[in-house]
């Protein structure tokens, strides 16, 4: 494996700094507006917002679930500004603190309540998803290969505007081309695994998950894959990241539609019933580390499938490491530690990127950062 580049510390990135000083307080305001929170919950949420803006990072209360583990993981960062810690680490801890502030992990009424559910449900009931579901009737008319590529691109671009991102960036409709396109290689990988099992590490609920489910249906129904293991988050995370509940909501959205979408929902329900679609999770998906630190059980699971496809920006950061890589360092080199063939479908919403051709980088402009963070560019990379 190639030498590691320096980790992204938020103070070195205007984009990452904004996540703490603007996006997180705005998210907390939305949560305060969406739920009948009691004074203690409100106080805890406001304190967390203030901490993010100009306070210092406090550890979990000593009696909180997982407090010892987080104490050990974060010893070097507590007592310092949030932006002084590695971006990936601190964002993950923020979501642990956010859930803790409303009592998600405690016995009682709020245990297990997804505080992001109102936002996810609004998206699922909205026009974007309605148009996406309706468009499946046209896609069904395409030849099999064209249909596969159309569904792959729809799963890719479905990642464009996750709900956390929209808090400060809005839901943009502008898209540019792909900065890297290994889709031929990815299809070859899937064909060579024909009839086998592939892991898909999901990202967001709502329109992205609908697109992912439609792609999964296509891969199974066309016989390309015999089995898909869909990995979701064990708890609400990064606002719109999908949990098992969200997969259920998306499946029901498909089943409630007319036309081709309903057929997709019925076939997927059948695939789940006979084990061709398995939904799985692991605590590591909410841990503050990249995949080089994955536990042995997860490593063994990824090693046992023909390929793993990771969706979205966060999974990309965790796959290649949230680091200041030279953008032309090869994707295969950076991901060589991964246990088996791996591919990424990601719209670019943070600083990190690898695997670009020098000519592509020259066109994008290495110094500007908008193409890296605005969600207007995307990539498909495969090892
Ligand atoms: O839903 P995605 O594609 O993983 O994007 C979430 C991204 O949003 C951010 O929280 C901020 O852009 C990134 O840190 C993260 O990578």
Automatic annotation (TrEMBL):
Instruction: Indicate whether DNA damage appears among the record's keywords.
Output: no
Q: Which cofactor does it need?
A: Mn(2+)
Q: Which UniProt keywords apply?
A: Hydrolase, Manganese, Metal-binding
Catalyzed reactions: beta-D-fructose 1-phosphate + H2O = D-fructose + phosphate; beta-D-fructose 6-phosphate = dihydroxyacetone + D-glyceraldehyde 3-phosphate
Q: Which residues form the Damage-control phosphatase ARMT1-like metal-binding domain?
A: 22-357
Instruction: Name the InterPro entries on file.
Output: ARMT-1-like_metal-bd_sf, ARMT1, ARMT1-like_metal-bd
Manganese among keywords = yes
**Where are the membrane-spanning stretches?**
none
Similarity annotation: Belongs to the damage-control phosphatase family. Sugar phosphate phosphatase III subfamily.
Q: Name the chain's protein.
A: Damage-control phosphatase ARMT1 family protein
Q: Which organism is it from?
A: Streptantibioticus rubrisoli
Biological classification of the source: Bacteria, Bacillati, Actinomycetota, Actinomycetes, Kitasatosporales
């Amino acid at each position: 494996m190639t030498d590691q580049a320096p980790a992204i510390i938020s103070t070195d990135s205007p984009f990452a700094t904004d996540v703490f000083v603007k996006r997180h307080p705005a998210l907390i305001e939305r949560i305060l507006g969406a739920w009948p929170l009691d004074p203690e919950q409100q106080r805890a949420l406001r304190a967390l917002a203030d901490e993010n803006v100009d306070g210092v990072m406090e550890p979990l209360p000593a009696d909180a679930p997982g407090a010892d583990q987080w104490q050990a993981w974060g010893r070097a960062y507590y007592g310092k500004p949030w932006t002084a810690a590695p971006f990936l680490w601190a964002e993950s801890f923020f979501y642990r603190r956010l859930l803790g502030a409303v009592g998600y992990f405690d016995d009682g009424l709020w245990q297990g309540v997804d505080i992001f559910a109102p936002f996810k449900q609004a998206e699922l009931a909205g026009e974007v998803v309605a148009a996406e579901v309706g468009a499946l009737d046209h896609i069904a008319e395409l030849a099999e290969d064209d249909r596969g590529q159309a569904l792959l691109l729809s799963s890719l671009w479905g990642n464009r505007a996750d709900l956390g991102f929209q808090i400060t960036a809005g839901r943009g409709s502008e898209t540019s081309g792909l900065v890297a396109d290994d889709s031929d290689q990815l299809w070859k990988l899937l064909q060579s695994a024909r009839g086998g099992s592939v892991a898909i590490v999901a990202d967001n609920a709502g329109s992205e998950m609908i697109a992912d489910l439609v792609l999964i249906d296509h891969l199974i129904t066309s016989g390309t894959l015999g089995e898909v293991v869909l990995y979701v988050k064990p708890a609400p995370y990064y606002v719109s990241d999908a949990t098992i509940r969200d997969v259920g909501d998306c499946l029901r959205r498909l089943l409630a539609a007319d036309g081709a979408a309903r057929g997709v929902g019925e076939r997927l329900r059948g695939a789940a019933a006979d084990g061709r679609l398995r939904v799985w999770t692991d605590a590591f998906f909410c841990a503050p580390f990249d995949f080089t630190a994955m536990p042995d059980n997860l490593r063994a699971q990824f090693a046992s499938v023909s390929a793993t496809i990771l969706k979205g920006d966060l999974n990309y950061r965790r796959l290649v490491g949230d680091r200041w890589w030279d953008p032309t360092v090869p994707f295969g080199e950076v991901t060589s530690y991964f246990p088996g063939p791996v591919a990424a479908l990601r719209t670019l919403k943070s600083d990190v990127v690898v695997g670009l051709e020098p000519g592509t980088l020259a066109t994008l402009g290495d110094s500007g950062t908008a193409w890296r963070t605005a969600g207007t560019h995307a990539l498909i990379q495969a090892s």
